Amino acid sequence: MASGSKLFKKTKDPRQRWDALVLRVSSATAAEREQLGEKEARIQRALVDYDYFVTTYFPHYTKDKLGKTTSCAPFHVQAANAVKADPEFTGMWAWFRGSAKSTHADIFLPLWLKIQRPIRQLNVMLLIGKNAKTATRLLQDVQVELQHNELYIRDFGPQLKEGSWEQGEFQTQDGCAFVALGMGQPPRGTRFGAQRPDYIVCDDLDDDKLKKNQGRITEIVEWLHRAVIPTMDGGIMRFLFVNNLIAKKGLMARLIAEHPDWYFLRVDALDRNGNPTWDRHTKEHFERLRKKIKHKAFESEYMNNPQEDGGVFLLEQIKWKSLLSDLAQYDALVMYGDMSYSTSEKADYTSIPMWAKKGHQFFKVKVYHRQRETPSKAVKWWFDFYLKLPMKVRSKLKCYVEANATQKELLRPIINREARKRGVANFIKFDTSKKGDKDDRIGSMTTQYENGDVFYNAAEQSDPDMLASIEQLTGWTEGGGQGMHDDGPDADESAWRKLEKIGKRSGREEVPTGSFTKNTSRGF
């Protein structure tokens, strides 16, 4: 199921694109003669079954070249039913790129609302794009279905009456109207006879350029509040904003923050277990895509997790390198745990990195870096990983976990229970030392990164935990920010300090590393 607006992107001329759309839709929806009873049964099912409606009337979207039909994902059906169920629906879809959000919001859903009985649920649709040209292009995809989709016309009658996407609006024979509007344009007075807009969709208004202009975002939010939404007036008045969450301070992020009362459905390409949320895509497809466009872009475009450099640790400073086959050949090995004790949505991360050191260089071997996981699960993972290591590596590896007095009482029985279950001695020591200012400690690592003395295990280049920890590092800024997590960099710095102490105790002469003094050259 592809987005109609992307099917003809090689055709720049709007009229040529229209002709191609007409050919595609009319050839794919040629209707066959049938009995009247079959038609009525199909209509009755289509009124209540969204997936059936989509796959029956839009085969040119749902069938591949081999004729295989791709059904709607559960989230498509859930979202459509939520909009249909509430005549005064107001909400947002934050769906990953390639999820067909525009196709559903702009085409399938409004045409489904239009056929509802006994009360039609769409009379005037206002389709808002980032500019007038984009909005008109989106409207083109709607008109071609109403004018040339023979399957839809066969069951619901001739549609187009007058107007055209080229004029920015058109009407149907049953009295419905469809209007295109560019972001920021005045919608006041938009009505057809006594009908005012009752279905408004804002499609992909957020972009990389807009996120850099907070003043413009404020203007657009005010425009939506004061001009757009009030164009609707009583009875049926649905408003839908669709985008992927591409910026932490973008337009959608602002609306989410200001409207916790609005319906909100976030759908990432992969679920928490790393499986696709829509079976149209495979796990392998997304793994290849992540490698092709790199982690930062993948998280922003496909995981609703916008990645923005904090300006201190840069993505370009992350160097991948194959490690020594025998980890025991490194000068020192440390695992350091920074535990989270909450499983709430905004909880801190549990981060347990393993670092190696040779000379003045640091090597990140492995990391457990997860949110909303219990200490029991983290400790179990730690024991699993540790006991799989060769004995000579274990004898060299030092393991610590940060814990104040209260945390020690919580962790001690968890660790001891895991050790008894495995029949091994407890190898994790509590670190209760005072560390000083966290920002100063994390910022002190910049010297090593800038000098190119930090490397990441190339074998972990696609590991979700490793990538998530890098995300925290490159997003870190001194003083933090709303929603910023720093558990990964904090655990990394703590591990580095332990490596330094081990090196000094061994009597090995160290190459100066900056002595972990704060680097102020970036002015952060």
From TrEMBL:
<feature type="region of interest" description="Disordered">
    <location>
        <begin position="477"/>
        <end position="524"/>
    </location>
</feature>
<protein>
    <recommendedName>
        <fullName>Terminase large subunit gp17-like C-terminal domain-containing protein</fullName>
    </recommendedName>
</protein>
<feature type="compositionally biased region" description="Basic and acidic residues">
    <location>
        <begin position="484"/>
        <end position="511"/>
    </location>
</feature>
<feature type="compositionally biased region" description="Polar residues">
    <location>
        <begin position="514"/>
        <end position="524"/>
    </location>
</feature>
<dbReference type="InterPro" id="IPR027417">
    <property type="entry name" value="P-loop_NTPase"/>
</dbReference>
